[in-house]
Amino acid sequence: MKTESKHIILKAEQLSIGYKTKKKDMVISSDINFDLEKGQLIGLVGENGIGKSTLLRTLIKVQPELSGNISLNNQNLKQISAHHLATQLSIVLTEQLTSKNLSVFELVALGRHPYTNWIGNLTEIDFEKINQALELVGVSDLKEKKCFELSDGQLQKVMIARALAQDTDIIVLDEPTTHLDMYHKAYILKLLKRLTQDTGKTILFSSHEINLAIQLCDTMIVMTKEVTVTDQPCHLIEKGVFNSLFPKDMIAFDSKTGSFRVTK
Amino acid sequence: MKTNKTYKLQFLLLFVILALCFFTNISLGSVSIPFKSIFGSLFSTIENSTWEVIITNFRLPKAITAILVGSGLGISGLLMQTLFRNPLAGPFVLGISSGASLGVALVILGSGLFGGAFAIALASKWSIVIAASLGSFLVLMSVLAVSHRVRDTMAILIIGLMFGSITAAVVSVLSYFSSAEQLQQYIFWGFGSLSNLSWNELLIFSGIYFVGLILSIASIKGLNSLLLGDNYAKSLGINLKKNRFIIIIATSLIAGTITAFAGPIAFIGLAIPHLTRQIFTTSNHKILLPAVCLFGAIVMLICDSVAQLPGSDYILPINAITALVGAPVVIWLLVRQRKMMF
């Protein structure tokens, strides 16, 4: 059920990211360009410290871009109000929840914040969206549990349900597969893939699971020291982009199987 | 926020207990008044005018003060624990009580340094109230000014504690140069007291309290989103800076006036939110806020009843009672759960 129309949700032009200090700008990565289409699963990969998190933080407006342009639904990110942004973009971060005393239902219900009234009363529509999100992710049976009772894998699913309940066009996840075992890593990424197909949402995630990402993603953004390339995984393999991802004396990319192997 | 849990039964129960505590509190005291007359005096006049005076001018304002102090400290404790993501935060972490102590110390202890005529002018109760309010207000403003530059809430917490240390040091220096009577007066203020509030004072007290209460109710939604963490709250469209400002102002209004009128009352603000979470197993502030209100009022009324030592003429310092009740409760909670949730 792939969307045929080329509806661009998130666009980056000549984007330069990094940190602003008083003296000068610390550029982490520059010349980033991409168009992310509606209903796609997009994986962001690159080695540690290359700037994946910085890029995601810039895209979700937690930190300002150094130069260039980001547009969300054809609107400049800078000009989107915080409240309006909350209805268009939701996030799943690596940071710990402040309170794990929240029940799963309460946590997912917080996703409805942009839509509720001044005191946060839930309407019938809100309940519907919350239950729908819980069901889509398959955690309805955990509803009454407290977050501290959940395993890492369950908690990650619940966090994804919360982002779904926020009912946004795009969901951005920062390393959703860390701390998870191999089964749950595959499970979460397959879940994300299914969600893009079922809901038509665009999902952008950063990950170190390159082998899985190559198999599941519609588009991948590969960050290396020199360039940032965005394309379909098969094209990226053809172009040999993955070969330059890591130092060759340790790990090499096997383009036949589409996976990385340790060099012996 | 839970599927349909509104905790109606618990709220009803707390209301009943609150009413019971209220009447018990009024009926206890050095002069024993029959329960029937107490009821009578609340709703109409009774034959014994001495009793009526005791009830309307002494016991009733004191019971209302206890309710305002208990509920107010509970609210400030809840707000601070959520804002600072720290289960050990209480209403005084921002330096509110230390600021008030400094103001009062300057008035009581410093009066000796400024000479006789000035000292007499400063001896009145209002000067203590004003000094305490000014002191907590000034310390709070400094903390707010710093917090405007510092974005990390933990840093604000530590800055508040540092302000506390500075004021404590100034108070030590002042007490070193003070006379025994002045020291005694200062220490008595530090004991805390729910009595001695006239109806006029109570009116001002409750006025400021309600402004703080309204601000707290207005920040319920923001408080709930803070449970996720700053970045998540932001992603939900919450204006963090504005929210933090409102929460701090609400706390300082409530805790500041309480300290000004009743002295620095310990432990209630810290313990009440934790006790409340034992009954209301939710993190939703829409439920927790009214719950800590009720619970705080109940505990304060009980503490006050205990402080009067039923059947005797003595009134123990309320601060000692709240600590005696509060500290074991916190220890018990820690031992039982091995972890403080908030």
From TrEMBL, chain A:
InterPro entries for this protein: AAA+_ATPase, ABC_transporter-like_ATP-bd, Metal_Ion_Import_ABC, P-loop_NTPase
Domain ABC transporter span(s) in chain numbering: 10-250
Alphabetic keyword roster: ATP-binding, Nucleotide-binding, Transport
Keyword Plastid appears in the UniProt entry: no
Keyword presence, Ribosomal protein: no
Gene3D superfamilies documented for this protein: P-loop containing nucleotide triphosphate hydrolases
GO MF annotations in UniProt: ATP binding; ATP hydrolysis activity
Protein name as catalogued: Iron complex transport system ATP-binding protein
Automatic annotation (TrEMBL), chain B:
Keywords from the UniProt entry: Cell membrane, Membrane, Transmembrane, Transmembrane helix, Transport
Subcellular localization(s) per the UniProt record: Cell membrane
Top-level taxonomic group: Bacteria
Annotated PANTHER family: FERRIC ENTEROBACTIN TRANSPORT SYSTEM PERMEASE PROTEIN, TRANSPORT SYSTEM PERMEASE PROTEIN
Transmembrane segment boundaries: 92-120, 126-147, 154-177, 202-224, 245-272, 287-307, 314-335
Entry GO MF terms: transmembrane transporter activity
Protein family membership: Belongs to the binding-protein-dependent transport system permease family. FecCD subfamily.
Signal peptide bounds: none
Protein name: Iron complex transport system permease protein
One biological process term in Gene Ontology: siderophore-iron import into cell
Topology term for the membrane: Multi-pass membrane protein
InterPro entries in UniProt: ABC_BtuC-like, ABC_transptr_permease_BtuC
GO cellular component annotations of the record: plasma membrane
Keyword Membrane appears in the UniProt entry: yes
Location, primary (coarse class): membrane
